[in-house]
Design goal:
It is built from 16 helices and 23 strands. By secondary structure, it is of the alpha/beta class. Helix 2 crosses helix 5. The protein starts with 18 loop residues before the first helix and ends with a helix.
Length: 542
């Protein structure tokens, strides 16, 4: 798809959401549960939508909060529920709705003691800290966030007692019950006005920031004099970066401390929308333009579960490139990690990670898209690092204990500083070394138009449906519809050869399927893979 002509340029007044209309719609618009698009639907990161399109309104959050209260009771989860929120405009009213409903159901809700914003990893960290060593009174959590989505969007995601994103068993039950409540006109939803709703407090910032030394070597960063610039992109990490700089005496500047729910300070993403995507060169254009001020510049999305790494020598790093570098560095510099701990990656992440893991002598655990697949391994130490191509990752503390079982963009940003401090080379310089050793892969994702019927078929293919024997001049070495690491369905198809691969997955929101592809033989070979992938998919669907 062609980029918007203003991609990477500052937002203009006409690009901004009307906050008063958005907030009014949250309260006044009532979704029609008979319309599929207006029902509660949990994707890989919770329920998302906009009040303006009747997809994220008070009714949705009231029903979902009631469903979560009933689900946790059914599961025997009777400890506190940690409730966080990001800086999107809809997060505040949705947070209020959640407090009103959860407290009315007798849930002990713990909210931020500073009445500020809470990054996703701080909620995961709080859940794991509370639950460590416990068998009863277990905590869980909710983060009110649509992640990097545009300013008109809202999001609501549930993290069970394992601290990570909820699996489909939980989200399916919660969504099903929430939609029953919508269909019943919210009869069955208990609610107490916010003025009378009981909740306790928790100092998310202090608990998280004071513990960072157990997961990243910040003494090395300070000692080497690495100059850091951190841009929260107007998101929930804004207070955290200032606190990190102060606590650990780092040469760290919070590049843009502004919080504005219209996100008017952003540059437009590839499609002309405001989007806090810290892996996008368009959304990160301002930070990239100022890269020479710092040794390492970093960005986070609105709930800080993603990371963007900018170096003086190379600009914004591709997320796949940084994951490969982080893995290589960490497994060589964490002697306290379990000797048998695997490397976790998603099926659509770069095969450079496969080569790095093999070189390290570590098992590679390849799973479907979705961070939830890494949660059990990060909890028990059988995975020391889990990362996905969309710039989300987490890893163990230096002693091998779990840190967060949800994506943590803050520690990945700080790790870039540690790598530079300890090795004297930036992450991008390390990646250049990897390409000299293993080759330089070309990687891209494209969208292909597809009917809804074919999308449904694609999600349910079996390996035997693929009759092709070659791809872009090479013999096909594997046809996968389940993940090699855990046998879970990929929800699509992956085909590999010696020097390349593609994966095709149906979009959850549009009538397209996504083709992820990579070649170690260069851009021309990648283009052949992308072209022939469509023929392979067409043949399999037939």
């Amino acid at each position: 798809m062609a980029n918007h002509p203003r991609a990477g340029t500052p937002a203009l007044p006409e690009d901004l959401v009307d906050l008063s209309a958005l907030l009014a719609a949250y309260a006044d618009v009532h979704p029609d549960p008979a319309v599929a698009a207006q029902r509660v639907a949990f994707g890989t990161s919770g329920h998302r939508g906009s009040a303006l399109s009747a997809t994220f309104n008070d009714d949705h959050i009231a029903a979902t909060s009631q469903a979560i209260a009933e689900y946790r009771a059914q599961q025997g989860t009777d400890g506190p529920l940690f409730l966080g929120k990001d800086t999107h405009a809809l997060s505040d009213p949705a947070w209020v709705t959640a407090v009103e409903v959860l407290s009315a159901n007798g849930v002990r809700v713990l909210v931020d003691s500073r009445d500020r914003w809470t990054p996703t990893p701080a909620v995961s960290h709080a859940i794991l800290t509370h639950n460590a060593g416990r068998t009863a009174g277990l905590a869980d959590g909710v983060v009110v966030t649509p992640s990097h989505n545009p300013p008109a969007d809202g999001g609501f995601k549930y993290n069970p007692p394992d601290g990570g994103p909820a699996g489909t068993d939980a989200t399916g039950w919660i969504a099903g019950r929430a939609n029953e409540l919508l269909e019943a006109g919210l009869r069955g939803v208990r609610r107490t006005p916010i003025e009378r709703a009981e909740r306790g407090t928790y100092d998310f910032l202090d608990a998280y920031v004071s513990d960072l030394g157990s997961v990243v070597d910040l003494d090395a960063v300070r000692g080497a004099g690495v100059v850091l610039g951190a841009d929260p992109l107007g998101g929930a990490s804004v207070d955290y970066w200032g606190a990190i700089a102060e606590r650990y005496k780092l040469d760290l500047t919070v590049v843009n401390p502004t919080v504005d729910p219209t996100f008017a300070f952003m540059t437009l993403d590839w499609d002309g929308k405001i989007r806090m995507d810290c892996s996008s060169p368009y959304a990160m254009a301002s930070l990239v333009a100022g890269k020479d001020r710092f040794t390492i510049s970093t960005g986070n999305d609105a709930d800080s579960d993603r990371h963007g790494i900018v170096t003086r020598d190379a600009g914004l790093m591709n997320p796949n490139h940084y994951l490969a570098v982080a893995i290589r560095y960490l497994y060589a510099h964490r002697p306290g990690w379990p000797a048998g701990a695997a490397v976790g990656k998603t099926a659509v992440s770069s095969s450079m990670i496969d080569r790095v893991a093999a070189d390290l002598g570590r098992e590679l655990l390849e799973v479907p898209v979705g961070f939830k697949w890494f949660v059990p391994g990060l909890r028990d130490g059988s995975i020391a690092f889990g990362g996905e191509e969309s710039a989300g990752a987490s890893f163990l503390r230096t002693d091998g204990r779990p840190w967060s079982t949800d994506k943590d963009g803050i520690i990945l940003c700080l790790l870039a500083g540690e790598i530079t401090a300890v090795t004297g080379r930036t992450p991008s310089e390390h990646y250049a070394e990897l390409t000299e050793r293993f080759g330089a892969p070309a990687y891209a994702r494209i969208d292909v138009a597809c009917s809804r019927e074919d999308k449904a078929k694609l999600g349910k293919l079996s390996a035997s449906d693929v009759t092709a024997t070659s791809l872009a001049g090479e013999e096909i070495t594997a046809r996968l519809t389940t993940a090699p690491g855990n046998g879970a369905p990929l929800g699509g198809l992956k085909v590999t050869t010696e020097h390349g691969w593609f994966a095709a997955r149906p979009s959850g929101t549009e009538d397209v399927y996504k083709v992820y592809a990579e070649s170690f033989l260069g851009p021309e070979h990648l283009a052949r893979i992308q072209e022939e992938a469509q023929e392979v998919v067409k043949g399999a669907l037939a």
